[in-house]
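dumping these here so i dont lose them again. two proteins, back to back, each one seq then C-alpha coordinates. dont judge the mess
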Amino acid sequence: QPGSSIATALAAGEVPMKHVALIDVRRGVFRCTPLPLWTVRPLVMKDVSLGDSGLLRTDTQAIWNALASDVEALIAEGDAEVQRRRRELAASCASGLEAPSLPLVRLRVEHSGFETISGQAFGQQFGGRVANPEDILLFHRRGGSGGAAGSRNITVPNNLEIEEAPAPGDDGVKIQDIIYKYIEGEQGLSILPEPDLNDAVQSFVHRAETGAIDQFVRRVVEATNDAVLRESRAVGEEEIRVQIQDRAEQQRRHRLSGAPGPAWNA
Protein backbone atom coordinates (compact mmCIF):
# COMPACT_ATOMS: atom_id res chain seq x y z
CA GLN A 1 0.00 0.00 0.00
CA PRO A 2 2.04 2.96 -1.26
CA GLY A 3 1.49 6.20 0.59
CA SER A 4 -0.57 6.68 3.71
CA SER A 5 -3.95 5.11 4.41
CA ILE A 6 -5.14 8.31 6.10
CA ALA A 7 -5.06 11.99 5.20
CA THR A 8 -1.66 13.25 6.37
CA ALA A 9 -2.14 16.84 5.19
CA LEU A 10 -4.99 19.15 4.25
CA ALA A 11 -3.94 19.11 0.60
CA ALA A 12 -5.66 18.39 -2.70
CA GLY A 13 -3.79 15.12 -3.11
CA GLU A 14 -5.52 13.76 0.00
CA VAL A 15 -9.08 14.39 -1.24
CA PRO A 16 -9.64 11.21 -3.32
CA MET A 17 -10.92 8.07 -1.62
CA LYS A 18 -8.20 6.16 0.22
CA HIS A 19 -7.57 2.55 -0.75
CA VAL A 20 -5.34 -0.35 0.08
CA ALA A 21 -4.51 -2.99 -2.51
CA LEU A 22 -5.00 -6.75 -2.25
CA ILE A 23 -2.56 -8.46 -4.61
CA ASP A 24 -3.07 -12.09 -5.68
CA VAL A 25 0.00 -13.73 -7.22
CA ARG A 26 -0.02 -17.08 -8.99
CA ARG A 27 2.66 -18.47 -11.33
CA GLY A 28 4.02 -15.09 -12.27
CA VAL A 29 0.59 -13.58 -12.88
CA PHE A 30 -0.82 -11.09 -10.43
CA ARG A 31 -4.13 -9.36 -9.88
CA CYS A 32 -4.52 -6.14 -7.93
CA THR A 33 -7.83 -5.45 -6.23
CA PRO A 34 -8.33 -1.97 -4.69
CA LEU A 35 -10.14 -1.98 -1.37
CA PRO A 36 -11.73 1.32 -0.28
CA LEU A 37 -11.12 2.43 3.29
CA TRP A 38 -14.52 3.53 4.53
CA THR A 39 -13.24 4.36 8.02
CA VAL A 40 -10.99 7.20 6.82
CA ARG A 41 -12.26 10.69 7.54
CA PRO A 42 -13.22 12.47 4.28
CA LEU A 43 -11.51 15.69 3.23
CA VAL A 44 -13.36 18.30 1.18
CA MET A 45 -11.67 21.36 -0.31
CA LYS A 46 -12.42 24.46 -2.33
CA ASP A 47 -10.40 27.34 -3.76
CA VAL A 48 -11.74 30.88 -3.77
CA SER A 49 -10.26 34.24 -4.73
CA LEU A 50 -11.25 37.37 -2.86
CA GLY A 51 -10.13 39.42 -5.83
CA ASP A 52 -12.85 37.79 -7.95
CA SER A 53 -15.55 38.04 -5.28
CA GLY A 54 -16.56 41.65 -5.90
CA LEU A 55 -16.19 42.39 -2.19
CA LEU A 56 -14.71 45.59 -0.87
CA ARG A 57 -11.23 45.16 0.52
CA THR A 58 -12.20 47.01 3.70
CA ASP A 59 -15.48 45.17 4.33
CA THR A 60 -14.24 42.58 6.80
CA GLN A 61 -17.72 41.43 7.82
CA ALA A 62 -18.77 40.79 4.22
CA ILE A 63 -15.58 38.80 3.63
CA TRP A 64 -16.22 36.82 6.81
CA ASN A 65 -19.80 36.05 5.73
CA ALA A 66 -18.77 35.04 2.21
CA LEU A 67 -16.13 32.62 3.50
CA ALA A 68 -18.57 31.24 6.08
CA SER A 69 -21.07 30.54 3.28
CA ASP A 70 -18.41 28.65 1.31
CA VAL A 71 -17.52 26.61 4.40
CA GLU A 72 -21.19 25.77 5.01
CA ALA A 73 -21.37 24.33 1.49
CA LEU A 74 -18.23 22.29 2.10
CA ILE A 75 -19.62 20.96 5.38
CA ALA A 76 -22.79 19.84 3.60
CA GLU A 77 -20.64 18.05 1.03
CA GLY A 78 -18.52 16.48 3.76
CA ASP A 79 -21.54 15.35 5.77
CA ALA A 80 -22.96 13.65 2.70
CA GLU A 81 -19.69 11.80 2.19
CA VAL A 82 -19.61 10.79 5.88
CA GLN A 83 -23.08 9.29 5.57
CA ARG A 84 -22.10 7.45 2.38
CA ARG A 85 -19.09 5.91 4.06
CA ARG A 86 -21.21 4.84 7.02
CA ARG A 87 -23.63 3.09 4.67
CA GLU A 88 -20.84 1.37 2.77
CA LEU A 89 -19.18 0.24 5.99
CA ALA A 90 -22.46 -1.16 7.30
CA ALA A 91 -23.05 -2.99 4.03
CA SER A 92 -19.60 -4.56 4.19
CA CYS A 93 -20.57 -6.33 7.43
CA ALA A 94 -17.17 -5.46 8.89
CA SER A 95 -17.18 -5.84 12.66
CA GLY A 96 -15.29 -3.68 15.11
CA LEU A 97 -14.85 -0.82 12.64
CA GLU A 98 -16.25 2.66 13.17
CA ALA A 99 -17.16 5.13 10.47
CA PRO A 100 -15.97 8.75 10.75
CA SER A 101 -18.36 11.26 12.29
CA LEU A 102 -16.94 14.60 11.15
CA PRO A 103 -15.29 15.63 7.87
CA LEU A 104 -12.08 17.55 7.36
CA VAL A 105 -12.71 20.88 5.62
CA ARG A 106 -10.20 23.16 3.94
CA LEU A 107 -11.00 26.47 2.20
CA ARG A 108 -8.01 27.90 0.34
CA VAL A 109 -8.37 31.66 -0.02
CA GLU A 110 -6.31 33.67 -2.51
CA HIS A 111 -6.25 37.09 -0.86
CA SER A 112 -3.86 39.29 -2.86
CA GLY A 113 -4.73 42.89 -1.96
CA PHE A 114 -6.90 41.83 0.99
CA GLU A 115 -6.08 41.42 4.66
CA THR A 116 -6.52 38.02 6.28
CA ILE A 117 -8.84 37.19 9.14
CA SER A 118 -8.11 35.07 12.19
CA GLY A 119 -8.46 31.42 11.28
CA GLN A 120 -8.96 30.35 14.88
CA ALA A 121 -11.69 32.90 15.55
CA PHE A 122 -13.37 32.05 12.26
CA GLY A 123 -13.30 28.33 12.93
CA GLN A 124 -14.97 28.58 16.35
CA GLN A 125 -18.40 28.89 14.73
CA PHE A 126 -17.94 25.45 13.17
CA GLY A 127 -16.85 23.63 16.33
CA GLY A 128 -18.48 20.21 16.59
CA ARG A 129 -19.29 20.19 12.88
CA VAL A 130 -15.83 19.69 11.41
CA ALA A 131 -12.79 17.80 12.65
CA ASN A 132 -10.40 20.74 12.12
CA PRO A 133 -12.16 23.99 13.13
CA GLU A 134 -8.90 25.87 13.71
CA ASP A 135 -7.42 24.89 10.32
CA ILE A 136 -10.33 25.49 7.96
CA LEU A 137 -8.90 28.58 6.27
CA LEU A 138 -5.61 28.71 4.40
CA PHE A 139 -4.69 32.11 3.00
CA HIS A 140 -2.23 32.37 0.14
CA ARG A 141 -1.09 34.82 -2.48
CA ARG A 142 0.07 34.62 -6.04
CA GLY A 143 3.66 35.70 -6.47
CA GLY A 144 4.37 38.72 -8.64
CA SER A 145 6.78 41.54 -9.20
CA GLY A 146 7.15 44.38 -6.79
CA GLY A 147 6.98 44.35 -3.03
CA ALA A 148 7.05 46.42 0.09
CA ALA A 149 9.43 49.30 0.50
CA GLY A 150 12.90 48.08 1.36
CA SER A 151 12.39 44.61 -0.08
CA ARG A 152 14.40 43.30 -2.97
CA ASN A 153 12.74 43.74 -6.34
CA ILE A 154 12.73 40.14 -7.52
CA THR A 155 10.31 38.74 -10.07
CA VAL A 156 8.41 35.63 -8.98
CA PRO A 157 6.32 33.85 -11.68
CA ASN A 158 2.55 34.16 -11.34
CA ASN A 159 2.08 30.41 -11.05
CA LEU A 160 4.25 30.22 -7.93
CA GLU A 161 1.82 30.02 -5.07
CA ILE A 162 2.90 31.42 -1.71
CA GLU A 163 0.92 30.16 1.23
CA GLU A 164 0.89 32.04 4.50
CA ALA A 165 0.68 30.25 7.80
CA PRO A 166 -0.93 32.11 10.70
CA ALA A 167 1.71 33.31 13.11
CA PRO A 168 1.18 35.15 16.39
CA GLY A 169 3.07 38.41 16.70
CA ASP A 170 3.77 38.70 12.99
CA ASP A 171 6.91 40.78 12.64
CA GLY A 172 6.36 41.56 8.98
CA VAL A 173 8.57 38.77 7.69
CA LYS A 174 6.84 37.18 4.69
CA ILE A 175 7.33 33.77 3.15
CA GLN A 176 8.57 35.57 0.03
CA ASP A 177 11.67 36.49 2.03
CA ILE A 178 12.44 32.80 2.44
CA ILE A 179 12.42 32.39 -1.32
CA TYR A 180 14.50 35.51 -1.83
CA LYS A 181 17.15 34.12 0.51
CA TYR A 182 17.81 31.30 -1.93
CA ILE A 183 17.16 33.03 -5.26
CA GLU A 184 19.14 35.98 -6.57
CA GLY A 185 18.20 38.10 -9.59
CA GLU A 186 15.45 38.00 -12.18
CA GLN A 187 16.72 34.71 -13.67
CA GLY A 188 16.75 32.96 -10.32
CA LEU A 189 14.16 30.39 -11.43
CA SER A 190 15.98 29.50 -14.66
CA ILE A 191 16.62 25.94 -13.49
CA LEU A 192 14.12 25.62 -10.62
CA PRO A 193 10.69 24.14 -11.46
CA GLU A 194 8.30 26.47 -9.65
CA PRO A 195 5.75 23.83 -8.50
CA ASP A 196 8.48 21.85 -6.72
CA LEU A 197 10.01 25.00 -5.28
CA ASN A 198 6.57 25.84 -3.91
CA ASP A 199 6.37 22.39 -2.29
CA ALA A 200 9.78 22.94 -0.70
CA VAL A 201 8.71 26.33 0.68
CA GLN A 202 5.55 24.82 2.18
CA SER A 203 7.61 22.06 3.82
CA PHE A 204 9.90 24.71 5.29
CA VAL A 205 7.06 26.83 6.65
CA HIS A 206 4.26 24.45 7.58
CA ARG A 207 6.19 21.29 8.55
CA ALA A 208 9.29 23.02 9.98
CA GLU A 209 11.63 21.11 7.66
CA THR A 210 14.48 23.59 7.98
CA GLY A 211 16.57 22.08 5.18
CA ALA A 212 13.77 21.62 2.66
CA ILE A 213 14.58 24.55 0.37
CA ASP A 214 18.34 24.13 0.54
CA GLN A 215 18.08 20.40 -0.23
CA PHE A 216 15.65 21.03 -3.08
CA VAL A 217 17.92 23.63 -4.72
CA ARG A 218 20.97 21.40 -4.35
CA ARG A 219 19.17 18.43 -5.91
CA VAL A 220 17.90 20.45 -8.84
CA VAL A 221 21.33 21.92 -9.52
CA GLU A 222 22.99 18.49 -9.31
CA ALA A 223 20.33 16.85 -11.52
CA THR A 224 20.57 19.64 -14.09
CA ASN A 225 24.35 19.48 -14.10
CA ASP A 226 24.31 15.70 -14.60
CA ALA A 227 21.73 15.98 -17.40
CA VAL A 228 23.74 18.62 -19.25
CA LEU A 229 26.96 16.62 -18.97
CA ARG A 230 25.20 13.43 -20.06
CA GLU A 231 22.95 14.70 -22.85
CA SER A 232 24.21 18.06 -24.06
CA ARG A 233 26.03 18.65 -27.32
CA ALA A 234 25.92 22.39 -26.81
CA VAL A 235 29.08 24.41 -27.06
CA GLY A 236 29.42 27.81 -25.53
CA GLU A 237 27.84 29.33 -22.49
CA GLU A 238 24.76 30.70 -24.25
CA GLU A 239 23.76 27.34 -25.81
CA ILE A 240 24.16 25.60 -22.47
CA ARG A 241 22.08 28.27 -20.74
CA VAL A 242 19.27 27.86 -23.30
CA GLN A 243 19.30 24.09 -22.88
CA ILE A 244 19.11 24.41 -19.10
CA GLN A 245 16.14 26.76 -19.37
CA ASP A 246 14.40 24.43 -21.85
CA ARG A 247 14.87 21.50 -19.48
CA ALA A 248 13.48 23.49 -16.57
CA GLU A 249 10.44 24.46 -18.65
CA GLN A 250 9.81 20.79 -19.56
CA GLN A 251 9.98 19.82 -15.90
CA ARG A 252 7.67 22.67 -14.95
CA ARG A 253 5.06 21.54 -17.48
CA HIS A 254 5.49 17.96 -16.29
CA ARG A 255 4.55 18.97 -12.75
CA LEU A 256 1.79 21.41 -13.69
CA SER A 257 0.16 18.64 -15.74
CA GLY A 258 -0.43 16.79 -12.46
CA ALA A 259 2.22 14.13 -13.05
CA PRO A 260 3.36 12.57 -9.75
CA GLY A 261 6.78 12.89 -8.22
CA PRO A 262 9.33 15.68 -8.08
CA ALA A 263 10.05 17.00 -11.57
CA TRP A 264 13.82 17.16 -10.94
CA ASN A 265 13.87 13.34 -10.64
CA ALA A 266 12.50 12.99 -14.17
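---- next one ----
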Amino acid sequence: FATLMGFLMGSVLISSLSAGIIDFRMTRRDKVVKMRTLRRYLAENYTSGPLAMQVTKHIEQRLSMQARLEEHDVPALKLLSRDLRAELLFGMCRSGLQGHPLFRLWIHIDLACVQRLCGEAVSTRYLLAQDEVFRGGAEGVAAFIVSHGSLMYTLENFTDQSDPDHCLRRDSTTGVGAGTWVSEAALWVEWTHTGRLESIAESRMFAIDVQQMPKLLFHPVLRRTATEYAQLFHRRVVSARPPLAQYPSDLVVPHTDYCDLVCAMSRTVQAAIGLEAFEQVTSWEGWMTSAARQKLRDEIMEGRSVVVVTGYGSVRRGGGLFSPPP
Protein backbone atom coordinates (compact mmCIF):
# COMPACT_ATOMS: atom_id res chain seq x y z
CA PHE A 1 0.00 0.00 0.00
CA ALA A 2 2.81 2.42 0.94
CA THR A 3 4.52 1.72 -2.38
CA LEU A 4 1.30 2.43 -4.27
CA MET A 5 0.74 5.74 -2.41
CA GLY A 6 4.32 6.76 -3.09
CA PHE A 7 3.90 5.98 -6.75
CA LEU A 8 0.70 8.05 -6.94
CA MET A 9 2.23 11.02 -5.11
CA GLY A 10 5.27 10.90 -7.34
CA SER A 11 3.09 10.85 -10.44
CA VAL A 12 1.13 13.88 -9.23
CA LEU A 13 4.37 15.76 -8.44
CA ILE A 14 5.87 14.98 -11.84
CA SER A 15 2.65 16.03 -13.61
CA SER A 16 2.60 19.34 -11.73
CA LEU A 17 6.23 20.05 -12.56
CA SER A 18 5.68 19.19 -16.20
CA ALA A 19 2.65 21.47 -16.42
CA GLY A 20 4.61 24.28 -14.79
CA ILE A 21 7.54 23.88 -17.19
CA ILE A 22 5.24 23.83 -20.22
CA ASP A 23 3.42 26.94 -18.99
CA PHE A 24 6.74 28.73 -18.42
CA ARG A 25 7.98 27.85 -21.90
CA MET A 26 4.74 29.02 -23.54
CA THR A 27 4.84 32.31 -21.64
CA ARG A 28 8.48 32.86 -22.54
CA ARG A 29 7.81 32.04 -26.20
CA ASP A 30 4.88 34.49 -26.24
CA LYS A 31 7.14 37.27 -24.89
CA VAL A 32 9.84 36.49 -27.46
CA VAL A 33 7.32 36.63 -30.31
CA LYS A 34 5.87 39.93 -29.09
CA MET A 35 9.31 41.56 -28.77
CA ARG A 36 10.40 40.28 -32.19
CA THR A 37 7.23 41.71 -33.74
CA LEU A 38 7.76 45.03 -31.96
CA ARG A 39 11.36 45.37 -33.21
CA ARG A 40 10.26 44.57 -36.75
CA TYR A 41 7.50 47.20 -36.53
CA LEU A 42 9.95 49.85 -35.28
CA ALA A 43 12.45 49.01 -38.01
CA GLU A 44 9.86 49.11 -40.77
CA ASN A 45 8.66 52.53 -39.63
CA TYR A 46 12.17 54.02 -39.43
CA THR A 47 11.88 54.81 -35.72
CA SER A 48 14.96 56.64 -34.43
CA GLY A 49 17.48 54.79 -32.28
CA PRO A 50 16.93 56.49 -28.87
CA LEU A 51 13.15 56.42 -29.21
CA ALA A 52 13.14 52.80 -30.34
CA MET A 53 15.26 51.85 -27.33
CA GLN A 54 12.91 53.71 -24.99
CA VAL A 55 9.85 51.97 -26.45
CA THR A 56 11.54 48.58 -26.35
CA LYS A 57 12.63 48.99 -22.73
CA HIS A 58 9.14 50.10 -21.70
CA ILE A 59 7.48 47.09 -23.35
CA GLU A 60 10.05 44.69 -21.85
CA GLN A 61 9.27 46.02 -18.38
CA ARG A 62 5.54 45.59 -18.94
CA LEU A 63 5.95 42.03 -20.22
CA SER A 64 8.05 41.11 -17.18
CA MET A 65 5.23 42.09 -14.80
CA GLN A 66 2.64 39.56 -13.78
CA ALA A 67 -0.82 40.85 -14.69
CA ARG A 68 -3.44 40.80 -11.93
CA LEU A 69 -6.49 38.67 -12.45
CA GLU A 70 -9.61 40.59 -13.39
CA GLU A 71 -13.19 39.40 -13.23
CA HIS A 72 -13.28 38.29 -16.87
CA ASP A 73 -10.19 36.13 -16.20
CA VAL A 74 -12.11 33.97 -13.70
CA PRO A 75 -14.77 31.96 -15.60
CA ALA A 76 -16.07 30.43 -12.35
CA LEU A 77 -17.49 33.81 -11.31
CA LYS A 78 -20.07 33.49 -14.08
CA LEU A 79 -21.64 30.67 -12.08
CA LEU A 80 -22.52 33.02 -9.22
CA SER A 81 -26.04 34.28 -8.87
CA ARG A 82 -26.57 37.96 -9.66
CA ASP A 83 -27.11 38.87 -6.01
CA LEU A 84 -24.10 36.93 -4.75
CA ARG A 85 -21.86 38.46 -7.42
CA ALA A 86 -23.07 41.94 -6.41
CA GLU A 87 -22.35 41.13 -2.77
CA LEU A 88 -18.84 39.97 -3.67
CA LEU A 89 -18.07 43.16 -5.61
CA PHE A 90 -19.53 45.28 -2.82
CA GLY A 91 -17.26 43.55 -0.30
CA MET A 92 -14.25 44.48 -2.43
CA CYS A 93 -15.06 48.19 -2.63
CA ARG A 94 -17.03 48.78 0.59
CA SER A 95 -14.24 50.54 2.48
CA GLY A 96 -13.73 52.98 -0.39
CA LEU A 97 -17.43 53.66 -0.89
CA GLN A 98 -18.20 54.38 2.74
CA GLY A 99 -15.34 56.87 2.82
CA HIS A 100 -17.87 59.18 1.18
CA PRO A 101 -20.53 60.18 3.74
CA LEU A 102 -23.37 60.07 1.20
CA PHE A 103 -22.55 56.51 0.18
CA ARG A 104 -22.10 55.56 3.85
CA LEU A 105 -25.62 56.88 4.42
CA TRP A 106 -26.99 54.86 1.49
CA ILE A 107 -25.33 51.69 2.77
CA HIS A 108 -27.04 52.19 6.12
CA ILE A 109 -30.44 52.88 4.54
CA ASP A 110 -30.55 50.16 1.87
CA LEU A 111 -27.58 47.80 1.75
CA ALA A 112 -29.11 45.64 -0.99
CA CYS A 113 -29.56 48.65 -3.29
CA VAL A 114 -25.91 49.67 -2.91
CA GLN A 115 -24.82 46.08 -3.53
CA ARG A 116 -26.77 46.07 -6.80
CA LEU A 117 -25.13 49.37 -7.68
CA CYS A 118 -21.71 47.78 -7.17
CA GLY A 119 -22.66 44.80 -9.27
CA GLU A 120 -23.81 46.85 -12.26
CA ALA A 121 -22.15 50.28 -12.08
CA VAL A 122 -18.75 49.71 -10.43
CA SER A 123 -15.74 48.21 -12.18
CA THR A 124 -12.22 47.46 -11.01
CA ARG A 125 -9.19 48.90 -12.77
CA TYR A 126 -5.66 47.62 -12.25
CA LEU A 127 -2.90 50.00 -13.26
CA LEU A 128 0.80 49.58 -13.90
CA ALA A 129 3.27 52.41 -13.44
CA GLN A 130 2.78 55.23 -15.99
CA ASP A 131 -0.72 54.11 -16.95
CA GLU A 132 -2.93 57.10 -17.75
CA VAL A 133 -6.43 57.13 -16.28
CA PHE A 134 -7.62 60.33 -17.97
CA ARG A 135 -6.30 63.64 -19.25
CA GLY A 136 -7.48 67.23 -19.14
CA GLY A 137 -10.26 68.13 -21.54
CA ALA A 138 -11.71 64.61 -21.67
CA GLU A 139 -15.33 63.99 -20.72
CA GLY A 140 -15.84 62.67 -17.21
CA VAL A 141 -17.58 59.30 -17.60
CA ALA A 142 -16.74 57.88 -14.17
CA ALA A 143 -15.81 58.79 -10.63
CA PHE A 144 -12.81 56.93 -9.18
CA ILE A 145 -11.89 55.60 -5.76
CA VAL A 146 -8.22 54.70 -5.20
CA SER A 147 -8.10 51.34 -3.42
CA HIS A 148 -4.34 50.99 -3.16
CA GLY A 149 -1.22 52.23 -4.87
CA SER A 150 0.02 55.66 -5.78
CA LEU A 151 -0.94 58.07 -8.55
CA MET A 152 -0.06 61.59 -9.63
CA TYR A 153 -2.60 64.21 -10.63
CA THR A 154 -1.42 67.13 -12.76
CA LEU A 155 -3.73 70.13 -12.75
CA GLU A 156 -3.45 71.77 -16.16
CA ASN A 157 -3.54 75.49 -16.76
CA PHE A 158 -6.19 77.23 -18.79
CA THR A 159 -7.16 80.77 -19.72
CA ASP A 160 -10.29 82.78 -19.22
CA GLN A 161 -12.17 82.94 -22.53
CA SER A 162 -13.02 86.58 -21.86
CA ASP A 163 -9.34 87.39 -21.38
CA PRO A 164 -7.12 84.89 -23.26
CA ASP A 165 -3.94 86.61 -22.06
CA HIS A 166 -4.82 85.96 -18.44
CA CYS A 167 -3.82 82.51 -17.19
CA LEU A 168 -6.17 81.47 -14.41
CA ARG A 169 -4.39 78.34 -13.21
CA ARG A 170 -0.88 77.04 -13.53
CA ASP A 171 0.23 73.43 -13.82
CA SER A 172 0.64 71.74 -10.44
CA THR A 173 0.99 68.14 -9.32
CA THR A 174 -0.57 66.36 -6.37
CA GLY A 175 0.02 62.85 -5.07
CA VAL A 176 -3.08 60.69 -4.90
CA GLY A 177 -3.16 57.77 -2.46
CA ALA A 178 -5.47 55.07 -1.18
CA GLY A 179 -8.92 56.20 -0.09
CA THR A 180 -8.97 59.28 -2.33
CA TRP A 181 -12.00 60.05 -4.47
CA VAL A 182 -11.12 61.48 -7.88
CA SER A 183 -13.53 63.22 -10.25
CA GLU A 184 -16.51 62.88 -7.92
CA ALA A 185 -18.05 65.85 -9.73
CA ALA A 186 -18.74 63.59 -12.74
CA LEU A 187 -21.45 61.85 -10.68
CA TRP A 188 -23.43 65.05 -10.17
CA VAL A 189 -22.74 67.35 -13.14
CA GLU A 190 -21.62 67.14 -16.76
CA TRP A 191 -17.92 67.17 -16.06
CA THR A 192 -14.78 67.79 -18.11
CA HIS A 193 -11.51 66.67 -16.55
CA THR A 194 -9.29 69.55 -15.49
CA GLY A 195 -6.04 67.64 -15.39
CA ARG A 196 -4.21 64.38 -16.01
CA LEU A 197 -4.21 61.36 -13.69
CA GLU A 198 -1.40 58.84 -14.05
CA SER A 199 -0.22 55.96 -11.89
CA ILE A 200 3.32 56.10 -10.56
CA ALA A 201 3.21 52.61 -9.08
CA GLU A 202 1.08 49.51 -9.44
CA SER A 203 -2.40 50.56 -8.29
CA ARG A 204 -6.04 49.53 -8.10
CA MET A 205 -9.05 51.79 -8.54
CA PHE A 206 -12.82 51.41 -8.54
CA ALA A 207 -14.70 53.29 -11.25
CA ILE A 208 -18.35 54.29 -10.79
CA ASP A 209 -20.16 54.64 -14.12
CA VAL A 210 -21.94 58.00 -14.11
CA GLN A 211 -24.61 56.83 -16.56
CA GLN A 212 -25.50 53.63 -14.71
CA MET A 213 -25.51 54.85 -11.11
CA PRO A 214 -28.71 56.98 -11.25
CA LYS A 215 -30.64 54.09 -12.80
CA LEU A 216 -29.87 51.86 -9.81
CA LEU A 217 -31.06 54.13 -7.00
CA PHE A 218 -34.39 52.38 -6.51
CA HIS A 219 -34.95 53.38 -2.90
CA PRO A 220 -36.93 56.68 -2.70
CA VAL A 221 -34.73 58.16 0.02
CA LEU A 222 -31.60 57.39 -1.98
CA ARG A 223 -33.08 59.03 -5.07
CA ARG A 224 -34.20 62.10 -3.13
CA THR A 225 -30.86 62.62 -1.38
CA ALA A 226 -28.98 62.10 -4.64
CA THR A 227 -31.18 64.63 -6.45
CA GLU A 228 -30.78 67.37 -3.86
CA TYR A 229 -27.07 66.64 -3.40
CA ALA A 230 -26.52 66.92 -7.17
CA GLN A 231 -28.45 70.20 -7.40
CA LEU A 232 -26.45 71.79 -4.59
CA PHE A 233 -23.17 70.37 -5.91
CA HIS A 234 -23.90 71.86 -9.32
CA ARG A 235 -24.44 75.30 -7.80
CA ARG A 236 -21.06 75.07 -6.05
CA VAL A 237 -19.32 74.06 -9.27
CA VAL A 238 -20.82 76.96 -11.21
CA SER A 239 -20.05 79.53 -8.50
CA ALA A 240 -16.48 78.34 -7.78
CA ARG A 241 -14.26 81.03 -9.27
CA PRO A 242 -11.90 83.73 -7.95
CA PRO A 243 -11.92 85.86 -5.95
CA LEU A 244 -14.48 84.01 -3.80
CA ALA A 245 -13.03 80.53 -4.37
CA GLN A 246 -10.57 78.51 -6.39
CA TYR A 247 -11.73 76.93 -9.63
CA PRO A 248 -13.00 73.35 -9.21
CA SER A 249 -10.77 70.45 -10.15
CA ASP A 250 -10.96 66.67 -10.33
CA LEU A 251 -9.72 66.52 -6.74
CA VAL A 252 -11.45 69.46 -5.05
CA VAL A 253 -14.66 71.40 -5.59
CA PRO A 254 -14.82 74.34 -3.15
CA HIS A 255 -17.67 74.57 -0.63
CA THR A 256 -18.92 71.01 -1.15
CA ASP A 257 -18.39 69.83 2.41
CA TYR A 258 -21.03 67.17 3.07
CA CYS A 259 -22.42 68.79 6.22
CA ASP A 260 -22.65 72.17 4.51
CA LEU A 261 -24.60 70.64 1.63
CA VAL A 262 -26.95 68.82 3.99
CA CYS A 263 -27.60 72.13 5.81
CA ALA A 264 -28.85 73.53 2.48
CA MET A 265 -31.17 70.60 1.72
CA SER A 266 -34.91 70.49 2.30
CA ARG A 267 -36.12 69.83 5.83
CA THR A 268 -37.54 66.44 4.78
CA VAL A 269 -34.16 65.21 3.55
CA GLN A 270 -32.36 66.74 6.52
CA ALA A 271 -34.67 64.82 8.85
CA ALA A 272 -34.11 61.53 6.99
CA ILE A 273 -30.32 61.98 7.14
CA GLY A 274 -30.47 63.18 10.76
CA LEU A 275 -32.51 60.19 11.95
CA GLU A 276 -29.96 57.79 10.46
CA ALA A 277 -27.22 59.61 12.38
CA PHE A 278 -29.44 59.70 15.48
CA GLU A 279 -29.61 55.90 15.46
CA GLN A 280 -25.82 55.74 15.60
CA VAL A 281 -25.59 58.24 18.46
CA THR A 282 -28.21 56.47 20.53
CA SER A 283 -26.45 53.14 19.99
CA TRP A 284 -23.64 54.39 22.24
CA GLU A 285 -24.99 52.69 25.33
CA GLY A 286 -25.06 54.75 28.49
CA TRP A 287 -23.87 57.94 26.79
CA MET A 288 -27.17 59.85 26.56
CA THR A 289 -30.13 59.94 28.90
CA SER A 290 -33.56 59.15 27.53
CA ALA A 291 -34.52 62.81 27.92
CA ALA A 292 -31.44 63.94 25.95
CA ARG A 293 -32.19 61.43 23.20
CA GLN A 294 -35.77 62.61 22.90
CA LYS A 295 -34.67 66.25 22.84
CA LEU A 296 -32.16 65.57 20.04
CA ARG A 297 -34.74 63.64 18.04
CA ASP A 298 -37.27 66.47 18.37
CA GLU A 299 -34.67 68.99 17.21
CA ILE A 300 -33.90 66.86 14.15
CA MET A 301 -37.57 66.45 13.23
CA GLU A 302 -38.28 70.17 13.70
CA GLY A 303 -35.28 71.25 11.64
CA ARG A 304 -33.47 72.87 14.58
CA SER A 305 -30.49 70.50 14.41
CA VAL A 306 -28.63 69.01 11.45
CA VAL A 307 -26.86 65.78 12.36
CA VAL A 308 -24.82 63.73 9.87
CA VAL A 309 -22.42 60.78 9.84
CA THR A 310 -19.07 61.64 8.24
CA GLY A 311 -17.07 59.42 5.92
CA TYR A 312 -14.95 58.40 8.91
CA GLY A 313 -18.00 57.17 10.82
CA SER A 314 -18.08 60.00 13.36
CA VAL A 315 -21.31 61.90 14.00
CA ARG A 316 -21.32 65.62 13.35
CA ARG A 317 -23.88 68.11 14.60
CA GLY A 318 -23.67 71.52 12.99
CA GLY A 319 -20.14 72.76 13.62
CA GLY A 320 -19.20 70.11 16.20
CA LEU A 321 -18.66 66.38 16.56
CA PHE A 322 -20.34 63.90 18.83
CA SER A 323 -17.78 61.64 20.44
CA PRO A 324 -18.62 58.10 21.50
CA PRO A 325 -17.94 57.20 25.12
CA PRO A 326 -14.52 55.70 25.89
